[in-house]
Amino acid sequence: MAYSDRKGTWMDSARKMLCMFVRTFARLRLERQFGARPFSPTKQLLASRDVERATNPRRHEQIVELTQRSNQHRTACQMNNFPLGLWAAAFITLNVPAAYAASEERSGSCEFRPVMIENFDEETAPNRRIESISSSRIGPARWTAHTPWGGDFGDATFIDPGPGGPFKIKDGILSITASKNQEGRWTSGLIAAADARGVGTGTRYGYFEARMKMPPGPGTWPAFWLAALKPADQRDGNVEVDVVEYYGQFTDSYRSVVHVWFNDPAKKRGKDEKIDVPNNSLVEDFHTFGVDVSPQAIVFFLDGKRVWSHPTPPELTYPLYPLVNLALGSGWPIDRTPNPSTLLVDYVHVYGRDAGPPEGCPPGPPPVPR
Known about the structure:
Oligomer: single chain
Order of helices and strands: HHHHEEEEEEEEEEEEEHEEEEE
């Protein structure tokens, strides 16, 4: 092979590698600026574009503009005659400061933006149809049926979706049912908006809310909680927020918890709070359980009313994604647990927000549209 041929081959390979870098960098710019990590940027934009136009026209324009820039960079990668070094220098010099500047310009905003609007109906599902719950992988499904790190907990085994499985969607309500199988063993279900690769939907700061009706009976252990959106093998210093943990034998209260997990058990820490409620109220009707996460504090809400707050741990450096499950036990007996027991979930909503001004943003759910 002639020297010129070898040189041309090397240059082509270098251009391809640089192109891959540029595309990845452009995607990270979108994620950094808007604070959320959807499982598929294209599908998430399509799914939320109508909401976005109605609630925040300027943000919709910014998304379109940045998407067009990303496409322009993709086209530029295909220009074989453009000097490689000059092209790379131009990209690094001109684009990196712009990305940081855009983020800084929005850093003082307290405006919410929809990240996940899951009503378990066709109108809010990606592509206007209900996507399945996958056993382990995000896309096209927006939920997986296990924790991304593959850990079951409690006295019921979380099983995959399918015929006879724990999940059912009817009339805009997701039901998660715990029951005994033919061998007399308890099975149940969990949904997580992320998978082991760190692919999923979440936001670092914002408001998370689920509307649920708890199952009656001792031994039930339903929960709505948040975990760090990153690859499953990166678990050191992860923040977990338990918005609601309900223990079926205690019918007049539930628990909210903030955990920080470390590989070294001696370093882990956490704080929990007992939230008192009218007796049996959580099993008799639906209620909303929400949490506002900001740089200053994690603030918990029940039916839109503030019930507890805790300082935000400094380890919160990643987005958080939602999980919902119906577990059993948690150290309490399940010999009197009703078979079957069903948790009803009306919706799961996630709204992203920037870090806000130094004094912080007013905590609470987004204002209801009029």
